[in-house]
Amino acid sequence: MQLQSNDPNIQTFWHVCGLDKDDESILWTVRGYILPLIPGLTDAFYETLATDPQTAPLIEGRVEQLKRTHVAWLESLFNGGYGADFIRRQQQIGEVHVRAKIPPTFVAASMSFLRGALPDVLAANIADKDDAKAAMGTLLRLFDLCQFLIDRSYDGTLSDGLMGNLGISPALLARLQTVGKKI
Questions:
Q1: Considering its fold, how many domains does the chain have in total?
Q2: CATH code, 138
Q3: What is d(CA 174, CA 152) in angstroms, rounded to the nearest whole number?
């Protein structure tokens, strides 16, 4: 995987996260096992969303369309190309969520669902346990990266609103975000 971003925060996340060229190879190795399982994983995810009082109204009447979008997103994770276009796509997903007024909790819960469901799916469908373990590590790091990139859209909206409405400089906002509560 090749990073193509000049954003120091993305560079730091990428470095600490540990994604590297071997991860792209791992995803290609397990791609054939995973792609057929994505629709079932997506069905289980949307069944869960439909039973939650906060998420059910967000998906009502749009489940089939949202499932197609979710399947396409998951499949795209196995298509290679994790550079600038990949980063932009994840950020656009966040922007769509912000415009649709989908709370960031939805994104975090969605990623958590995937992180929880994938180990069993991989273990049951990839015969080579070393390949399954390697794929799990790669996918967990990739989901973390996706969530980080998507969540930045929420941060940007909040930051832009605060800075614009209150006249706060970017430096002051960054400092305010790191001020801890006294316990």
A1: 1
A2: 1.10.490.10
A3: 14
